[in-house]
Amino acid sequence: MDGTVFDPAGGTSGLTPAGLMLRVRALWRRKWVVLGVAAVVAVLGAVYTLRQPKVFSASTSLIIDVMAPRFLDGEVKEVMGEERGNYWFNKEYYATQSEIITSRAVAGRVVDKLGLSTDAAFLGLGGVSDEKARVQAMQGADAVGLLQSRIRVIPAKDSRVMNIAVDDVDAARAALLANEVAAAYMAENLALKLRMTEDARTWLEGRLEELESQSKVSELAVYDFKKDADMLSTSLESRMSIVSDRINSYNLNLTEVSARIAGLQARVEAIQKLRKSSPDDETWAEALPGAKDGPIQDLKKSYTEVRVACAELSERYLPEHPKLLECQGKLAVIQGDFLKSLRNVVRSAETELSEAEAQRKNLVKLLDEAKAEAFLVNKKSIEYDRLKRESDNNQRLYELVLKRLKDIELSGLLRTSNVRVLDLARPVFVPVKPNVRRNLLVGLVMGLLAGVGVALLLDLLENSVATQTDIEERLGLAFLGIMPRIEGNRPPKERDLYVHREPKSSVAECCRAIRTNLLFMSPDTPFKTLVVTSSGPQEGKSTTAISLGVAMAQSGNRVLLLDTDMRRPRLHRAFGVPNELGISSLVVGEGSLDAAVKSTEVPGLFVLPCGPLPPNPAELLHTRAFTELLKTVAGKFDRVILDSPPLNAVADAAVLATQSDGVVLVLKAGKTNREAARRALRSLADVQARMYGAILNDVDLRAPRYGDTYLAYGQYGGEESKDRVAQS
């Protein structure tokens, strides 16, 4: 069986085209509410506007330059700063001037000059007749703030012209106030300049005294340092140059001495090597370079000659011969002198090496002393430079502050202003407030918006099911069709059988459309049993069930209506059949089905009444006997329609929904509450009932909310229905 199991969370969200059209139709339906609210707001705005006092405005035009005219040369700078061509600077400057014009300082000057704090007409107290009360009210009034609220600054576009406008109930006083505000602004501007100049001069004078004292202290510190460092006769640069020359000289001599020591040391090492090679023979010294000098060579020659002579004498004479002894004595003397001379040569080389090493040591000492003196001079130079730099800075600052002080004293003598009056204010006797035309237009627009808001609010507060969109989008159900309202004061029986007795009416056409929709929902396996219920009482479920049964019987089906509302049964009264034998009797085993089923005036339509009211209807519907009864009638008839109690009242409908092929929910247009409908659907979802959809009952086709949506239902029927629609 086709159909859907209802999901309580189902339904669409968001503003769909259908939802938008619903809002538009809601507005159109409440167009008189919108127009009424708009008219009320417009009238209130008009009354308020006409009751407002007339306000006049006058304006004074000023030319405001960034800088005042310059009478002194460019070297003399003013305290207020220099003119700049930057766009943002000019924008901020003119915004600042606007704030100054509307400041309490400027307004206070005007109030004091004109005595506005005691002017009852200006303060709006002219209507107070009691003198004491008026004086007390004037004492508590804020005249400065009142004037501030009336001042408006209107800059002229792409120029340096600014208009100062003042609003007042008196046109002449408005012009006077505008001119006085302009004059007060110029005076305040000049006073601000003079105050800043005076403050700057006072600060510079105090700073000048400090800098003069600091400059003197720093100059004395430089003098004391030069005196202590003996810099009065020779500068540090000269002393540093002398020390540098000495260091260079010492380095040069030290290099020479080091080279000489290297040579002498090599000579001494050679002598020591010769001495080690001939330790027993003194003649090794003959190999020394100094042994070839003239005196040593003479001694060597004499030694050689005497030794030869002694050798000859030793050949002639005996060893004790006097001549031989004399010769040998002479040889010994000459040999001693010769060896002594050789030893002096060795000693001379060693002495010269010692002397050179001592000289190098002294040079190193002198070089260290010169370097220490150079470091000391450098240190003094750094300290001197610091003191000199501090002294120069103090002197420079002193001269700078002194020059700036003179410039400020000179510029302070000038009384020039950068503000000039272009046009004085004149009284204008055309009021600027209230603007009647604008206020009426604004009131009308605001009224329309308020009316639209009220209409939408009423639509949002309306919580009933009224249209197909409500059923499909807000409840998430399939829309099966509508049942138009049956006009006229008809008896209940005629209303129930209206479809049968008026087969060409719009109600009958709508009922046949619902029948077709139900059949097309399950074309392959048509339903056998169908529960017709509602969320609450008095929503037309019984009339809808009867009308649906009539429409199905008219299509050639054998249809049985079961009155399963065992608390308030109504089908037996609608068809005029007895209720002594019915469903409750058959369930408990009394009577037969053929005897209980009653035929009606509608061909093919039969009814099975409720029977005697049982004390426990819900338990009775749960019995196996009722289930068997339902299967039996489903086998004998083509369609079985169950008229059940409301879902939110009792649980009978939910019980029946579990035993039938599907459920149809009847909703009364404009009466059924959406929350009540959702609760009913939730109870069906809890028992997994299969929902075919919903029928919108008692639809007033003449209502504006439906527009031409269901107009075809009223135009398609016979002449009787057309006449009824035309009369409506």
Automatic annotation (TrEMBL):
<dbReference type="InterPro" id="IPR005702">
    <property type="entry name" value="Wzc-like_C"/>
</dbReference>
<dbReference type="Pfam" id="PF13614">
    <property type="entry name" value="AAA_31"/>
</dbReference>
<feature type="domain" description="Polysaccharide chain length determinant N-terminal">
    <location>
        <begin position="24"/>
        <end position="114"/>
    </location>
</feature>
<keyword id="KW-0175">Coiled coil</keyword>
<keyword id="KW-0997">Cell inner membrane</keyword>
<dbReference type="InterPro" id="IPR003856">
    <property type="entry name" value="LPS_length_determ_N"/>
</dbReference>
<comment type="similarity">
    <text>Belongs to the etk/wzc family.</text>
</comment>
<keyword id="KW-1133">Transmembrane helix</keyword>
<feature type="domain" description="Tyrosine-protein kinase G-rich">
    <location>
        <begin position="386"/>
        <end position="457"/>
    </location>
</feature>
<feature type="transmembrane region" description="Helical">
    <location>
        <begin position="32"/>
        <end position="50"/>
    </location>
</feature>
<comment type="similarity">
    <text>Belongs to the CpsD/CapB family.</text>
</comment>
<dbReference type="GO" id="GO:0004715">
    <property type="term" value="F:non-membrane spanning protein tyrosine kinase activity"/>
</dbReference>
<dbReference type="InterPro" id="IPR025669">
    <property type="entry name" value="AAA_dom"/>
</dbReference>
<dbReference type="InterPro" id="IPR050445">
    <property type="entry name" value="Bact_polysacc_biosynth/exp"/>
</dbReference>
<dbReference type="Pfam" id="PF02706">
    <property type="entry name" value="Wzz"/>
</dbReference>
<dbReference type="InterPro" id="IPR027417">
    <property type="entry name" value="P-loop_NTPase"/>
</dbReference>
<keyword id="KW-0812">Transmembrane</keyword>
<keyword id="KW-0547">Nucleotide-binding</keyword>
<protein>
    <recommendedName>
        <fullName>non-specific protein-tyrosine kinase</fullName>
        <ecNumber>2.7.10.2</ecNumber>
    </recommendedName>
</protein>
<keyword id="KW-0418">Kinase</keyword>
<keyword id="KW-0829">Tyrosine-protein kinase</keyword>
<keyword id="KW-0808">Transferase</keyword>
<dbReference type="Pfam" id="PF13807">
    <property type="entry name" value="GNVR"/>
</dbReference>
<keyword id="KW-0067">ATP-binding</keyword>
<keyword id="KW-1003">Cell membrane</keyword>
<keyword id="KW-0472">Membrane</keyword>
<dbReference type="InterPro" id="IPR032807">
    <property type="entry name" value="GNVR"/>
</dbReference>
<feature type="domain" description="AAA">
    <location>
        <begin position="540"/>
        <end position="689"/>
    </location>
</feature>
<feature type="coiled-coil region">
    <location>
        <begin position="254"/>
        <end position="373"/>
    </location>
</feature>
